[in-house]
Amino acid sequence: MKQPRIFQKVALDMFWAQFQWALGFLGIMLGIHIFRIVTSFMRGTDVDTYFNMVFVAANIFIFILGIICMNFLKHYVGNGVTRKDYFKGGLIASLGLSIVLPIITLLVSAVSQLVIGQIDRVTINEPNINSVVLDIELDGNIIGNIISSVVQSFVVPPYVDPNGALILALGIVSLNVFIYYLIGWMIHAGFYRLGTLGGLGFVLVGVVTLILKDTLLRIILDLPIAEMVQFLDFVPQSVAGITVFLLMMMLIGIIRTLTKRAMIKI
Questions:
Q1: How far, in Å, CA of 157 to CA of 72, rounded?
Q2: N or C: which end of the chain has fewer CB within 10 A?
Q3: Does residue 174 contact residue 166 with C-beta atoms inside 8 Å?
Q4: Is 42 helix (H, G, I), strand (E, B) or coil?
Q5: What is the pLDDT of residue 92?
Q6: Which residues contact 16 (CB under 8 A, 6 or more apart)?
Q7: Which residues cross the membrane (predicted)?
Q8: Would you put residue 125 in left (φ > 0), alpha (ψ -120 to 50) or beta?
Q9: For residue 254, what are the domain limits?
Q10: How many domains does the chain have?
Q11: Is the CB of residue 125 less than 8 Å from the CB of residue 46?
């Protein structure tokens, strides 16, 4: 019987470890969601869907997972795994997480909505998440505008309602999750390999990537874009899609370069 390759074992190991952390995160979010349902019942108000709650919080969580991913390097290389196998395993694990987590979230959200539908005093809130981008306007403070755009990218990236376009909604969430993971991984790898100054340089790369990713996805989905990046409004949807793919390839290439000959710190 053919034995699995080393990177496949690494991928399964990393996926399972991070999947357990993700289940803990989803469990906490479910607890918060149930609490809000109870509160809404007592007050007779509406409540966000579980999918929308996780959509807002998951980017920060997955970004942290990406940062933690670099900590696996010392463990695997110390046990005889090559840096290439670590990289390939980590990349596959991150892809797996980006696909599985949105699906689990959607299934839990569907059950939650069925339950809420049986409660007379509670209704489901349907916020227009994508309209938040219109609240950020240029005020001459370039740094402030950039910070606002990054915060918005973490909290309210481009959104598709799963009730209207299920596959597209899952695809957009998976894409967001994957890119946030890669950015966290890249930034930690930058600090690990090149020190503080080099790491700060990759923080800048991550910021630019986030803003570009959000803008391009909004162009693809025909959503409003921030005033700060209105000059990109002319980009065709097909070109925007290709550019998002190239951004992902760039992040993957940078991570591979940074981890290829990374010294193992004792």
A1: 28
A2: N
A3: no
A4: helix
A5: 96
A6: none
A7: 21-38, 50-73, 94-116, 164-183, 190-212, 238-258
A8: beta
A9: 6-260
A10: 1
A11: yes
**222 located within any domain:** yes
Distance CA 239, CA 100 (A): 28
Q: Is residue 266 part of a domain?
A: no
Per-residue pLDDT band for 48 (boundaries 50, 70, 90) equals confident
> Is residue 122 situated within a structural domain?
yes
Taking residue 6's Cβ as centre, other Cβ atoms within 10 Å add up to 17
Residue 127: which pLDDT band, with cuts at 50, 70 and 90?
low
Flag whether 265 is in a domain. Answer: no
CB neighbour burial string for 111-130, b if at least 16 within 10 angstroms, e if fewer: ebeeebeeeeebeeeeeebb
Q: Is the dihedral of CA 202, 203, 208, 209 positive or negative?
A: positive
Beta bridge pairs of residue 47: 124
State the residue for tokens 């991070």.
18
Report how far residue 18's alpha carbon sits from residue 74's, in angstroms, rounded to the nearest whole number: 17
Place of tokens 């869907």: 49
Could you report the per-residue pLDDT of 94-108, keeping only the tens digit for each? 999 999 999 999 999
- The mean pLDDT value of the chain amounts to 85
pLDDT class of 2 with cuts at 50, 70, 90: low
